[in-house]
Amino acid sequence: MATQFKIAQPVEYYKKFLEQDVRPDGRELGEVRPTVLSVGSISSADGSALVKLGNTTVVCGIKAELTTPKSESPEHGFLVPNVDLPPLCSPKFKPGPPCEQAQAACVFMDKLVKNSNCIDLQTLCIEKGKYVWVLYCDLMCLDYDGNLLDACVVALLAALRNLLLPTVTVNEESGLAEADLEKTVSLVLQHQPVATSFSIFKNSVLLVDPTVEEESLSSGSITVVTLQDGSLCMINKPGGSCVADSALSDCISRSTLRTKEVCRLIEDSLHSLDR
Question: What class has domain 27-274?
Fold first, then answer.
């Protein structure tokens, strides 16, 4: 009977659980699914990380290349995030051009990098007006079960922390860049942004870390990004139901706690890699 009720009336089925402040998967409303992180998982990349958030799995690989800077910012390098949702991660995604959700995720990641100032792009400069680093950050979803943005942010942040750039010098005679692959340097992050997403139900109930089923039944979503020092970085709300001020304050508080948890997880993963 429960299975039939869920199929026939999925929203009412969820409401029965939410009235008891619990979700069908057994989690509390503000409980995040278990998060597993592995850094340095792609040997051919300059920096990489794999994140498993519940059943949602995202891998990030970073490749660094030398390029010519823009004339208006000759001392700034580039960071180019790209999110891919291939058919292998879920039947809802089809082969062909990037879907709307993948494009929206790319825009979100680009805004997050710029708004958080996580990287001082001047540190990616080798020689003003001539050589700078461009970091291609490719994020691929291997298994999709909701909350793509949170998983992508953790994967990107961990991969950047894992990134090693070769030492580059410019030959005075030829003017060409010469890389020493034996001598590498880590990328220094100014800030560590972490995203926390919520699904909004019609009765104004907020569910943190929604599954794909919860996302499909919700009346809206909101993603809060905070930094490791507790400051608010940005809020992303692509339409949907309104959120009361008190509920928004609660989202920010939960996001702050989640940021601390993720930063500790990344540190632990990096330390285990060093050992």
Answer: alpha beta
Tokens of 254: 């939960």
Please give the Cα distance from 195 to 233 (Å, whole number).
9
131 has pLDDT over 70: yes
H or E segment to which residue 193 belongs = none
- Of 41-45, 146-150, 241-245, give the lowest mean pLDDT range: 241-245
Tokens of 161: 């922390």
User: For residue 195, which of 220, 218, 222 has the smallest C-alpha distance?
Assistant: 222
Handedness of CA 243, 211, 254, 82 (dihedral sign): negative
**Res 203: pLDDT:** 61
- Give the residue from 147, 121, 164 showing the smallest Cα distance to 52: 147
Give the bridge partners for 222, in sequence order: 198
- What are the residue ranges spanned by the domains of the chain? 27-274
